[in-house]
Amino acid sequence: MKTNKQSTLLLIADDAAIYQDFLKNEPLNIIHVKTDAAALAHLSVSDVILLDFGLPDRNGMDILKYVQQHCPIIVLSAKKTVVNNAVLDGAFDFIEKQFRTSRLIFTLHNALHQHKLSQANDFIKKQWVTVCCFYWCF
Length: 138
Description:
- This protein is an alpha/beta fold and 138 residues long.
- It has one domain (7-137): Response regulator (Rossmann fold).
- It contains five helices and five strands.
- A five-stranded parallel sheet has the order 2-1-3-4-5, with helices on both faces.
- The chain is elongated, with a radius of gyration of 17 Å.
């Protein structure tokens, strides 16, 4: 992944060790939280979210519905029906547990790329509105 600044991954999972091991060679700032309450505090700095649906304090679908407006979310679950429903409800993608490292990294790269394109599009829209307003006023 070639970027000017290091991207931030918000990892919402009980056990982060396996994911951090898989991602140790990736240029990511990884913030690990175990609860939805802790996740809310880090939404504004996150570029992508890796969400394990097996959290003890809250249903993963509830978290997905709340945070999907902030950045792409990749859902992790052992249950295929859960991950399929998560994509229908707004997740960027899903990964069934017992996955390959390459699948995780590929999906993260795609989510980060989509997030950067979305940010660039938002910036261009704001610039266009500014230019249109300027010309309309004169």
